[in-house]
């Protein structure tokens, strides 16, 4: 069967031989080196068989010397298929056109995707690209290489620090990095540091400027702590000896942290009897669907028979995929509460007063302040209330900025 | 002289184990079930029809009978027959 293999590609024909003992013709064929296969006897005087397309000429020559009649029945194989196909002109043209169209379309820029930059810069980039001729619907091969575009863009859009241009098929991917334009920090004006409160300096840390005070000095509000004028006092003496030149003074912005010990006197009043609320632990849950301001109860009807109640509601918005719906589920916990009356002794009241004073003061001074000690100066008991006069020692930053005015 | 040739031939077959079809120019027939017959070393087609195939061999004929015969392949000294085979007969000349 090896001889027959590949016959479809080279093409083969089915021939019909008519005459007396037609099979003998095929015998003759094989003797002449013509491969024949699938021989079938159809009738007494006719016989059918396949021969290769390349053997047709030889067969014709052979048949002339015999009394047999040759006719071709079927033509099969790629050469015939190709011929038939080439004869169908409209199909051929359509195929060609669609091929051209596919090439045409795949060479058009379909999409520009800009990522990594805010909207307004995105628009700026798009505009800039437009001036280069890069917009939807242009020919890809008429564009510059991504590298050139990259360079041009960075040059022409000052907001861009870097842009990566990548062409993938019919899409341009641009990834930008925005230049964060940091305004150069305003050059610090010359300034001094002065005290805001009276106190005793505990620690000093001077980054810039000339310290004018020392640790353990007592300062009043407005006292100069760190001077922004450098070289004023020392140089002046030397220059006095010289040509009495005007002293050369450098002005700097004084910087530093001066921690001082300050004092406060606080008055607090603490009642000996007080009210407070307590939850009993009995609670009920209610659920609502909330649309706008309207709440539709879906679970838990009727009001509990609590005398005093405490409400606690949490709202859970409902999401659909990534959108938030204007609906939300509210679950409300209604707890029973009772009012209690408490009593405390004088000592407890004083302790509570001190605590209250401390926390009030810290709230006023900020988190950096530190309360060192407190002292009860005076206490009095009037009409069920304890009045306290407290004296608190605090450590805090007492420096504040004062610009130096340079007369010019 | 002929006797000598025959004796040499049988000697070759027996002592050298050469295949007998090559030495004696006899047909080699391979039958695959009922569907295929493969005949080598024949000397020509005598008759062929839908139900019968007759091949000339060295001395006489081979007659193969059956149904719906198709000559799957035909080469100068080989034939592959396909169909439903019922008998294979050797006919004297």
UniProtKB/TrEMBL annotation, chain A:
Protein keywords: Membrane, Transmembrane, Transmembrane helix
Keyword Transmembrane helix: yes
Superkingdom field: Bacteria
InterPro entries (alphabetical): YqfD
Keyword Lipoprotein set for record: no
Chain positions covered by the region annotation Disordered: 229-248
Transmembrane residue ranges: 91-110
Biased composition (Acidic residues): 232-244
NCBIfam families given in the database record: spore_yqfD (TIGR02876)
Protein name, per record: Sporulation protein YqfD
Species the sequence originates in: Oceanobacillus halophilus
Automatic annotation (TrEMBL), chain B:
Recorded superkingdom: Bacteria
Pfam families per UniProt: YabP (PF07873)
UniProt-recorded name of the protein: Sporulation protein YqfC
Lineage, broadest ranks: Bacteria, Bacillati, Bacillota, Bacilli, Bacillales
